[in-house]
Amino acid sequence: MNEDIKSYFFELLALQQELDPKMSDESFRSHFKKGLLPSLAETSYMFATPSMRKTEIKNLALKISEVKKLTLINNISTRQCIFNDSKVSVPKIHQPWRSEKRVNEKPNTQWTAQN
Fold first, then answer.
1. Is 104 within a domain?
2. 103: in domain
3. What is the extent of the structural domain holding 9?
4. CA angle, corner 67, sides to 60 and 86, nearest 5?
5. Per residue, what are the HEC states of the chain?
6. Dihedral of the CA atoms 66, 68, 73, 79 (nearest 10)?
7. How far is CA 102 from CA 61, 107, 109, in A?
């Protein structure tokens, strides 16, 4: 599952508005932390403070979402560059131990006549 933290925040906020419009920031913060995916929780915990209010959680979610989006764009761009580089033709290295017979090449009759 690849849920965006911004979407998660707004879904949780809508649910809170519907079920308990007077929910405290502490309770909202607790629900927010408990429901985070592990991949998002790690990033969130690095920047969260124990006393964050909903507006601060929203700002944090927006920042994390933007960073994740930019990281994804950067990764896609990097992969595209690597993919494009792999299409560049690289000249073959001369390998004398490999004899590749050319189409119009005549067989070496001198060598076979001596043996």
1. no
2. no
3. 5-86
4. 165
5. CCCCHHHHHHHHHHHHHHHCCCCCHHHHHHHHHHHCCHHHHHHHHHHCCCCCCHHHHHHHHHHHHHHHHHHHHHHHHHHHHHHHHHCCCCCCCCCCCCCCCCCCCCCCHHHHHHC
6. 170
7. 64, 10, 16
- Total number of domains in the chain: 1
Residue 19 pLDDT class (50, 70, 90 cuts):
very high
pTM of the predicted model as reported, rounded to 2 decimal places: 0.61
Q: Encoding tokens for residue 81?
A: 């560059």
Question: Is residue 25 in some structural domain?
Answer: yes
If you average pLDDT over residues 51-66, what whole number do you get?
94
State how far the Cα of 9 lies from the Cα of 48, in Å rounded to an integer.
14
Mean pLDDT, range 83-107, rounded to an integer: 55
Two structure tokens written together for 8: 């998660």
Average pLDDT over residues 62-91: 71
102 lies in some domain: no
> CA separation (Å) from 22 to 19, 58, 111?
9, 17, 98
